[in-house]
Amino acid sequence: MRKNKAELGESMLLTRRDAIAGVGGGLALLAVPSHAQAAYPSRTIKMIVPYPAGGTTDYLGRLVADQIQAGLGATVVVENKPGAGTTLGAEQVARAQPDGYTLLMATSTTLAINKTLYKNLPYDPVKDFTPIALVAAVPFALIVNPQIPASTLGEFITYAKSRPGLAYGSGGNGSPHHLGAEMLKTAARIDIRHVPYRGSVPAMLDVIAGHIPFMVVDLQPALPQIREGKVRVLGVTTTKRVAAAPDIPTLAEGGLAGFELVAWQGVAAPAGMPRPVVDQLAAQIGKLVADPATRDKLTKIALEPLPGSTPDSFASFVKTEVDRWADIVRNSGAELE
């Protein structure tokens, strides 16, 4: 059974795996000069999470913080700073001292999507950050309030077409949730209206409460709600079914051929951080993601661990992702209010 699930959850980012993984994996990161280890860390490290507590980014940020704390003997404090499509938290980190004591749990939104979405972005995703390592890939799902008379994607599209202006929630302007719904709007030719929230969990809670009828949400926080019947899931946004929920069809299976939306999460710091410090942090993240127990834990909650990421491969990956997401933003027709 384990083999079949692995096959179902087969890498959601196969086409970009070479860009994600550094040559030789994370082994080269282990050779850190002793003087760097002695000097760092010597005080509290702050991990900025640009989303509210309870979501995927917060979960991964706390997982990384615990690893750094255990591995480097440091005190790590997680600070949630949501708002403005992650730009508030990102700008805070971009303007911080590059000394290793302010880190960012960065997302596709922060380092790739916002570059195209915002005309006056207060930071440069490539120039203002030091990429440290990727952590995980994130699949999404289309969920609806159980009162909506739709059990399949086809039924939902029919329902949405009968109600022009149907509202949907998202984790904020320019978030993958926002783009995913706009992609759905274009692919299904439905007229829907965006209601941005400060994070995907608050939006999902309003779907549960019936304040908004549907949304595209990261699967990790939605899975418990799906299993408890608080929301109904109509499909996942990956090209293959997700190992943690193999009974959920893909949106492509439901009739939207080629539909794919997968985001990623990683750790970054202000630009100009000393390489020995970068390597220490990257080694800890690499250790976390390669740990079998952690990998199993992430897979079970519908996240795909991304082992083998290095600072250099992550930096190259960010540059290619800026271009890739620029196409998605333009093709989706997403616009900021």
Give the helices and strands, then pairings.
Layout: H1 2-8, H2 17-20, H3 34-39, E1 45-49, H4 56-72, E2 76-80, H5 87-94, E3 102-107, H6 108-117, E4 129-144, H7 153-161, E5 166-170, H8 176-188, E6 192-196, H9 200-209, E7 214-218, H10 219-227, E8 232-236, E9 262-270, H11 275-290, H12 292-300, E10 304-305, H13 311-332
Parallel strand pairs: 1-2, 1-3, 5-6, 5-7
Antiparallel strand pairs: 3-9, 4-7, 4-8, 4-9, 4-10
Low-confidence stretches: 1-15, 22-37
Mean pLDDT: 89
Distance between the termini: 47 Å
What is the H/E string?
Answer: HHHEHEHEHEHEHEHEHEEHHEH
Number of domains: 2
Any idea of the CATH topology of the largest domain? D-Maltodextrin-Binding Protein, domain 2
Q: What class do helices, strands and sheet pairing give? A: alpha/beta
Tell me which CATH architecture of the largest domain applies here. 3-Layer(aba) Sandwich
Gross morphology is: globular
What share of residues is helical? 40-55%
Topology, number of strands: 10
Report the C-alpha radius of gyration, rounded: 19 Å
Summarize the structure.
By secondary structure, the chain is α/β, with parallel strands linked by helices. It is 42% helix and 19% strand.
Tell me about this structure.
The protein is of the alpha/beta class and 337 residues long. It folds into 2 domains: 2-137 and 263-332, 3-Layer(aba) Sandwich (D-Maltodextrin-Binding Protein, domain 2), CATH 3.40.190.150; 139-236, Periplasmic binding protein-like II (D-Maltodextrin-Binding Protein, domain 2). Helices cover 42% and strands 19% of the residues. It has helices spanning 2-8, 17-20, 34-39, 56-72, 87-94, 108-117, 153-161, 176-188, 200-209, 219-227, 275-290, 292-300, 311-332; strands at residues 45-49, 76-80, 102-107, 129-144, 166-170, 192-196, 214-218, 232-236, 262-270, 304-305. Strands 1, 2, 3, 4, 5, 6, 7, 8, 9 and 10 form a 10-stranded mixed β-sheet that branches. Helix 8 links the parallel strand 5 and strand 6 (192-196). Helix 4 (56-72) crosses helix 11 (275-290) and helix 8 (176-188) crosses helix 13 (311-332).
